[in-house]
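Summary of Year 1 activities. Much of the first year was spent building the evaluation harness for sequence design. The harness presents a backbone, in tokenized form, and records the residue chosen at every position. We chose the following record to illustrate the format because it has been used consistently in internal testing since the harness was completed.
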């Protein structure tokens, strides 16, 4: 059974509902599986846990605000 993992910044519950609904429709069509058989896992990563170019995202945002 298809399993999709999403890594990204935190989302509100309402946005998560929209995301998994839209993804379920798309993946269901692509695999020709019923949406109820799909698994979607959301991993939320706060900016202090993600780095790009050797700098934490939270530090990059602070610099942009100045």
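For this record, the design step produced the sequence shown next.
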């Amino acid at each position: 059974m298809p399993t999709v993992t999403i890594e990204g910044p935190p989302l509100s519950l309402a946005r998560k509902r929209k995301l998994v609904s839209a993804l379920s429709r798309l993946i269901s069509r692509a695999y020709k599986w019923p949406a109820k058989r799909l698994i979607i896992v959301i991993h939320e990563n706060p900016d202090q846990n993600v780095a790009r170019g050797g700098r934490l995202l939270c530090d990059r945002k602070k610099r942009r605000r100045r």
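The longest strand covers residues 3-8. Quantitative recovery figures across the full test set are reported in Table 2.
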